[in-house]
């Protein structure tokens, strides 16, 4: 699988950086502003991976609002969430063990790397910079970069286009069914990590070619 690869697309939250603490801080500060009940970290973990709008909506519904009420609150919640996230971004999060080794090994093989996350692109760029990971990537794309987000294959296809590589020669590295499904549909080989956020579902059930316990196993 690794032999004829030209590039890799690497997910951010749950794959390279454990950002649950940042999400917890920003989301609960937002809910507090709005007078809505807090969400436990274990529940937030199951809501991450489908972008910020989905996270906010899930938290509002979890706190007892019905669908219409949640929709009404969403614009203000989004404004406040953005401002809190900018404050906390990177402060309560850590690079997972093996990430630097894995990325270094992929680069040493001559692969070009792109980061593709469902979190907003600016948040992603700031976080990669703060954690010393930005230099590995020629491209960074977020949930607001394309018309659709993972698990749709479009962001992967667009990223392959930007990298100038064929999907079959571009490895997806992720932590959730969003990454696995998007990769399968795009025609990219896919490796998933066993430690990330997968909505509370076993990662082995997500489409994958290989499961790894650390990015260092890509070496
Ligand atoms: O939902 C998010 O914001 C994080 O998503 P990611 O796993 O694609 O980085
Ligand atoms: Mg992820």
UniProtKB/TrEMBL annotation:
Q: Which residues bind Mg(2+)?
A: 11, 13, 175
What Gene3D superfamilies does the annotation carry? HAD superfamily/HAD-like, Putative phosphatase, domain 2
Alphabetized UniProt keyword annotations: Carbohydrate metabolism, Hydrolase, Magnesium, Metal-binding
Query: What is this protein called in UniProt?
Result: Phosphoglycolate phosphatase
Q: Molecular function (GO) terms listed?
A: phosphoglycolate phosphatase activity
Whether Metal-binding counts among this entry's keywords is yes
Under Enzyme Commission nomenclature, its number is 3.1.3.18
Query: Matching InterPro entries, A to Z?
Result: HAD-like_hydrolase_sf, HAD-like_sf, HAD-SF_hydro_IA, HAD_2, HAD_sf, PGP-like_dom2, PGPase_prok
**So which domain of life are we looking at?**
Bacteria
Species of origin: Hydrogenophaga laconesensis
- Which co-factors does it depend on? Mg(2+)
Leader peptide range in chain numbering: none
Q: Which residues form the active site?
A: 11
Q: In which pathway does it act?
A: Organic acid metabolism; glycolate biosynthesis; glycolate from 2-phosphoglycolate: step 1/1
Describe the family membership recorded for this protein in Swiss-Prot or TrEMBL: Belongs to the HAD-like hydrolase superfamily. CbbY/CbbZ/Gph/YieH family.
**Record field: catalytic activity:** 2-phosphoglycolate + H2O = glycolate + phosphate
The task this protein performs is described as:
Specifically catalyzes the dephosphorylation of 2-phosphoglycolate. Is involved in the dissimilation of the intracellular 2-phosphoglycolate formed during the DNA repair of 3'-phosphoglycolate ends, a major class of DNA lesions induced by oxidative stress.
